[in-house]
Amino acid sequence: MAAVLYRLGRFSFRRRGRVLAAWLILLALLGGAAAAFSGPTTDNFTMPGTESQRALDSLRRQFPQAGGTTGTIVVAAPEGGKLDPAALAPIVREAAAVPGVLAAMDPFQVGAVSPDGRHALVQVQFDSPLDKITDAQRAAYERAGATTPGLRVEHGGEIMKAEVEIGSTEAFGVLIAAVVLVVTFGSLVAAGMTLLNALIGVGAGMAGLFSLSGVVELSNVAPVLALMLGLAVGIDYSLFITSRYRQYLAEGMEAEEAAGRATGTAGSAVVFAGATVIIALAGLAVVGIPFLSVMGLAAAATVALAVLVALTLLPAILGFAGARVLPRRQRAGADTGTGDDREAMGFRWGRLVTRLRVPVLVVAVVVLGALALPARDMRLALPDAGTAAEGSTAREAYDLISEGFGPGFNGRLIAVVTGDDAQATANAAKQAAGAIQTTPGVLAVTPPQANAQGTTALLTVIPKTGPADAATEQTVHAIRERMNDIQGARVALSGVTAIGIDISAKLADAMPVYLLLVVGLSILLLLLVFRSVLVPLKAALGFLLTIGATFGITVAIFQQGHLADLLGVGRPGPLVSFLPILLIGILFGLAMDYEVFLVSRMREDFVHGDTAQRATVNGLGHNARVVTAAALIMTSVFGGFVFMHDPIIKSMGFALAVGVLIDAFVVRMTLVPAVMSLLGRAAWWLPRPLARVLPNLDIEGESLSRRPEEPAPAVIGAG
Fold it and tell me: SSD domain spans which residues (predicted)?
């Protein structure tokens, strides 16, 4: 492995003009494809095979006029006043005139007026699903009744779900990353080229992703996730290789040879670190939920591009930069960079941790265990307008509905009755309405609405509690149990709450398979990398501590509300249903990044003759500065997304930022050296039968240390 990447690094360094031109041409082609073929993203969460999805599919086939997106215009009279039909009639007419609207219901005709007469709901039915609604339609809907004098009018419903926009908050994270790079390298050239390299890679990845969005249904979270990871790992991988290149230059090595050696050694770690991230993300496809599979594969492809860019484009850019990647004092010869390395903080920290390894282990495990405690109460659901930012139109409508009608009106459920003939359907719908009305937790059930053929009937169910309330989940289960007794037709329950319950159930079923696949494959990969049985097991156990503490902190803030105002959390509530499995996949991959970066250097020193204890201290000492910078960069990139209003992106960015901090500083740079010190030489134990079977991938560059300094011209000339 090291020898192949060594030759690739030297080739890219020597042919830097051609390599850079090739990447710029590819970037331009992908950008053109994105402009020509990109399609809209969607926030539809589809789960094939679930009851809620079967209900929606049945509606689209048998009752298409009820299958489009909906809107709810909430009207309120001044305090102490009452609404009258004459005041609402113009609002209903304006809503009905919006392009694409099939019908707007008069509240006084359908009974959508609050008991005190002060609030009313104008239900608006569109003929198209949400992802087909245009900005012009949404703007026209928001204008309906907005200027009605003397009345408060708020616009809510599915149509008000806005697409996630990428803007200045992400740039804030990149700016912090740039500052960290300048401080780490002490060179604007090194920081700038590292950042440029990562931006080219993430630009190519995002362009490729959007070029496919015209033929693949892409959730609006997928591009944001790909951007998060592409930026984070792109900068980190470039940082790691550049740091090794600078080290070789400071030792007096010729620039082209230094680029080859850096790509061969640090690049090998990048390949396997990237492979663990890709495995973890691509493994999301086993869950069987299409939008989650697309998210995982899109992010995995972006990470793969980041690895390829780091191995090819980065050596080329290093060729243009030359010795300018070093601080000015080193280029002038005043500081070789080797005189006081062992006095660096990383070495001092390594000696301290290995000396106090038992107390360090106990304290760290206890603290992480305590942080994980809130995760016991974790609840999952799909986000609703109640978690939207305060002051937003969707949030104002949500709060006004709760004020006038009760929280259950924001979490309406849909019961779909489908029979073979009209009579059977009508009888079953009547049975269903009666059974649902007497179910604990149900406030009201609307009379059945049948399609033209009478074979499908629709009942709207109003629970007593809000969509994110645990009691509503119990109500859904109770209704479904009662529907099992309905004879003569098929009854399925859907709605936002029901969809969230079905997602959670499907994810719970898929979680063991996913963990077995991802952790199992990654342990096998680390077994190949380190040729050790205990090191991969230690890495996996450390990850469990990371994920437990991360879930605990995220639950404490986003669900329980501690420090929620500080982070701009609109309203504490359950975590989004797919967040746990997504975080497990992403954080496992990123955790293995730092494991590979740190432990590969420990093994490198051990293979080259150091004792196990000295290799542990040296491995941490040499890489602590780089891993610290990498962790701060990842945290700043992920942290930039915390400032977005979308609750899914906000919670995802926060959890990833916290997870990276915990894993890098507590687990990898504290627990790992403590455990490695306890294990000593046993850390590198590998049974002889296994040693004979496993290939020696040589990521430590042992083969490079035995070869002549200048073997490359003949090799590269062949290419």
Answer: 188-320
- Which residue is associated with the tokens 């969460």? 45
- Predicted local confidence at residue 719, as pLDDT: 30
Q: What is the pLDDT of residue 655?
A: 93
pTM equals 0.82
Report the half-sphere exposure of 344 (CA within 13 A, side-chain side).
18
- The widest CA-to-CA distance across the chain, in whole angstroms, is 94
| Residue indicated by tokens 């503490």 | 549
Can you tell me the distance from the alpha carbon of 177 to that of 695, in angstroms, rounded to the nearest whole number? 37
For 406, 480, 481, 504, 509, the CA distances from 475, given in Å and listed in that order, are 16, 9, 10, 16, 22
Q: Which of 382, 415, 35 is nearest to 210 (CA)?
A: 35
Per-residue CA distances from 494 to 394, 477, 498 (Å)? 21, 12, 5
Determine the Cα angle at 464 with ends 458 and 467, to 5°: 75
What is the CA angle 662-667-668, rounded to 5? Answer: 110
- What is the C-alpha separation between 665 and 346, in angstroms, rounded? 12
CB distance 433 to 379 below 8 Å: no
User: How long is the chain?
Assistant: 719
> What is the DSSP secondary-structure string of 415-458?
EEEE-SSHHHHHHHHHHHHHHHHTSTTEEEEPPPEE-TTSSEEE
d(CA 646, CA 648): 6
Angle of the 222-250 helix axis to the 579-607 helix axis, nearest 10: 10
Separation of CA 64 from chain center = 33
DSSP alpha helix (H) spans, 531-578:
534-554
pLDDT for the residue 334: 45
Residue 479 · residue 495 · CB < 8 Å: no
pLDDT the model gives residue 162: 60
Token output for 120: 């009313």
Q: What's the gap between Cα 233 and its chain centre?
A: 14
What's the rounded Cα separation, in Å, for the pair 63 and 65? 6
- Rg over CA atoms, the chain: 29
Whether 621 contacts 605, CB under 8 Å: no
> Tokens 């995220």 appear where?
554
* Tokens representing residue 48 in the block: 């094939």
Which parts of the chain have pLDDT scores under 50? 334-342, 708-719
Token readout for 413 is: 């459920």
* 3-class secondary structure, 127: coil
Residue 119 has which token pair?
């609030």
Spatial CB neighbours of 496, under 8 Å, sequence gap ≥ 6: 382, 384, 411, 467
Instruction: Please name the amino acid found at residue 298.
Output: A
Query: 354-363 burial, b if ≥16 CB within 10 A, otherwise e?
Result: beebeebbee
Handedness of CA 250, 176, 321, 313 (dihedral sign): positive
DSSP notation for 346-365? HHHHHHHHHHTHHHHHHHHH
Say if CB 464 and CB 406 are below 8 A apart.
yes
Q: What is the pLDDT of residue 290?
A: 81
Q: What share of the chain is helix, strand, coil (3-state, %, to 5)?
A: 70, 10, 25
> Helix crossing, 16-37 with 188-212: angle to 10°?
40
Q: Which residues are paired to 461 by β-bridges?
A: 413, 445
Cα angle for residues 219, 224, 230 (degrees, 5° grid)? 125
Phi, psi (5° rounding) for residue 457?
-125, 145
Q: Which two tokens stand for residue 380?
A: 């999952």
Return the pLDDT at 565. Answer: 79
